Amino acid sequence: MAIIGNIIKGVINLRNSISPETDHIKNQKETLNFLLEKAKKTEFGNHFEFSKILNSVDPYKNFKSTIPYFDYDKIHNDWWHKLHEGVSNVTWPGNPDYFALSSGTTGKTSKRIPVTDDMIEAIKNAGIKQILAIENFDLPSDFFEKEIMMLGSSTELQENNDHLEGEISGISASRIPFWFRGFYKPGEEISKIDDWDERVQKIAENAKTWDIGALSGIPSWMELMMEKVIEYHKVDNIHDIWPNLKVYTTGGVAFGPYEKSFKRLTGKHVHVIDTYLASEGFIALQTRPETDAMQLLTDNGIFFEFIPFKPEYINQDGSLKADSPSISIEDVELDQDYVLIISTVSGAWRYSIGDTIQFTDVEKAEIRITGRTKFFLNTVGSQLSVNKMDAAMKELGNQFDMEVSEYTICAKRADDNEFYHFWYLGTSDTSLDSSEVAEALDKALKSANKNYEVARTKALKGVKVNLVKPDVFYNWNARNKKKGGQVKMERVMNVEKFGEWENFVQKH
């Protein structure tokens, strides 16, 4: 009898049984009030007169009419740069001990995003909520005694003046509470190894000594790790090494394109649970098995706003136009793409993280990530979002019995001076006829997106496909010293970046 597991499961059952249905609208009103109240004496709060906003009849209306939208560059140049000069109480009380390094998928220069004690506490609370939600997946009691493989970035944080820097997954793992360390793998020593390949080699060497029940990390790097373990031990699948593996918590990118290859690496069914942890905070998590949508964490230090994702509100570079209209959670609608705007306990205010989302259940505040504002391909009116591209990759996988785990696309003129969509697909089966794949891809996108279908009858001449090994994508990231951790491949490239990519592909 798994005594400890039964105790943990019993506590989870008790917590779930006494938890009332969440009122997300009330949560968000209280969160906005909390944020404004706590930050009203900061430089930012004084400048934008938070006290006056708090005392107004409609705080949210005054909040959004007073404070402009920020992206990283704007808030860093206007405010956060002072934190690196030793100034305190800039956009949040105090001065953060940590900064999350994030270059995202669009550049080589790292962003330095403040991570306050309040944000670390919020991330810890989100982790607890996730553990509580696991009860809904009807797992056996002994699952709660198994070990968890958390494959993030290195926990060996770098000192910079009076603070520490690292990716958010590394910061979170470095703050794991003492009582959890016995469950956490690959453990502190291996997690501190900065070199990805060396770290994965150590994981492979030690894999048989662990009883892993859950995996957590970005799909592309998780698959590479599993492949290494399987190869090292000369077995058929990961369940030959970890027979009790039952849960995989994914995040960072949509899991759809990886589903086929992930199943190939596992021998038994694994519950895939989606999470939404960004460098700016823990935003949402999946709470029930009957959907793959995630519930916004409306009571955990983040106030959410939503801007309808329409071409008239978005600049060519993916940034927001200053007069784009925003709404709060009480006014959102189903099946509408929104640009996500957040204000947080780390002192981000009306901040665009560059993601677009769609509500699948308004009452439950459940969402799916539909793409990136910078990865929205609207050349010649095609209006392709990442979720439409991901769906097309899944359809190609089924039609050709192929695994497409990575891809990138660029819209540009070809030698005939006509516009084409140029696709590179990462698949182990590069012997397929690329023209047949291109035809099927074009057909899938036409049926999924009427704007694309219209564009194909006008300015968009066609689709060109190149099939390359998935390793090419991983090596591209490694070239920029971005292997492992939170790193994601850019799905859409501009013409200049795409030229660099094509030169890289030719050499590899």
Automatic annotation (TrEMBL):
Alphabetical list of Pfam families matching this protein: GH3, GH3_C, GH3_M
InterPro entries: GH3, GH3_C, GH3_M
Protein name: GH3 auxin-responsive promoter family protein
Protein source organism: Psychroflexus lacisalsi
Annotated ranges, domain GH3 middle: 296-363
Taxon lineage: Bacteria, Pseudomonadati, Bacteroidota, Flavobacteriia, Flavobacteriales
GH3 C-terminal domain span: 390-495
